[in-house]
Amino acid sequence: MTSDPPPSALSLQHLTKRYGPTLAVQDFSLDINQGETLALLGPSGCGKSTVLRCVAGLEQPDTGRVLMHGRDVTGLPPEQRGVGMVFQDYALFPHLSVLGNVAFGPKMRRVPKEEAERQAHEALSLVELTGLEDRRPDQLSGGQQQRVALARALATGSDLLLLDEPLSNLDERLRGELRGELKDLLARSGAAALLVTHDQREALAVASRVAVMRAGQLVQVGRGEGLFAQPATAWVAQFLGHENIFVQPDSTALVVPEQALQLGQGNAYTVTTQTLTDSGQNITLAHPLGPLHLHLSPREMALVEGGTLRLRVDEGRVLRVREDRDGAGSQPQQAAGAP
Ligand SMILES: Nc1ncnc2c1ncn2[C@@H]1O[C@H](COP(=O)(O)OP(=O)(O)OP(=O)(O)O)[C@@H](O)[C@H]1O
């Protein structure tokens, strides 16, 4: 006899949400397992925060359901859903100490003071801020504030965490450092986490699965590297950072990943543009497929001779995908609610 698998930590079923004429979220379905971090990735305005707000109970979907461990919470107010949230601006209380900020959640749930502070100490130790309990938020660095916000969400004891662009207020260097840290922290917490971001690198670095959203709809979901290696459409490929995508006459496009390019072999093609970067040069080649963009290390640059570079494209590694970009070849669509 086989038993049914346990229900997902979070199950979103056919969510739709309109704001007047704007269809912010359209027939959106997704499941997250306990212990899993899923990134909801998409350009600005595609509906990511609206999905998150429907999960938190800050917004009611027009249709569809939100289930937590199989329980329908669609009609429940935020305080009865028991989710921990980390916002973009951390929303820390400036007048409270670090400990006070983190113990706030348990105290609101009427946990006795001592126990609330014990839970707060535990969460602070998880984010490695032990020793800073008495400081106020303005006495912390941006990265430390971010970790307090995370500790506060963890101290709610919730097994579902919602993170809305949690690293966006940090500078590039710190953001890079904290990506790996956030991934470990979330894994250690054992909670299911839904991370909203428009940053591809953040999604790939922090989450085990990535859901790509465009104009209110889910367009592809998969493991990070798998998604980059097998984008479902030209728009997804471009959004994830593929540079060499060539429209074909039959409504498809060819995606040429870096691994398909063998330098120093085959025909010689003219270098049409060349710009210096920190790690080498970016060049464009006049190739029959179209202008081909390459990042070359100083060593690879030695292969450029007389303004040309020999190159072979391994056809077995070229992907053929559906062309779904607006006016094919232009930037990804930015706004939700477009027809
Ligand atoms: N309260 C609101 N009233 C009217 N329109 C709204 C409201 N909230 C969001 N929208 C619209 O719904 C769409 C989706 O917005 P949402 O904030 O969910 O996108 P997002 O992907 O989170 O964007 P960003 O990355 O910029 O935060 C946008 O077109 C937005 O303008």
Automatic annotation (TrEMBL):
**Which InterPro entries does this entry report, sorted A to Z?**
AAA+_ATPase, ABC_SmlMolc_Importer, ABC_transporter-like_ATP-bd, ABC_transporter-like_CS, ABC_transpr_FbpC, P-loop_NTPase
Q: Name one GO biological process term.
A: quaternary ammonium group transport
UniProt KW ATP-binding keyword: yes
Designated name of the protein: ABC transporter ATP-binding protein
Q: Which GO terms describe its cellular component?
A: membrane
Q: Which GO terms describe its molecular function?
A: ABC-type ferric iron transporter activity; ATP binding; ATP hydrolysis activity
Q: Which UniProt keywords apply?
A: ATP-binding, Cell membrane, Ion transport, Iron, Iron transport, Membrane, Nucleotide-binding, Transport
Q: Which residues form the ABC transporter domain?
A: 10-240
Q: Nucleotide-binding as a keyword?
A: yes
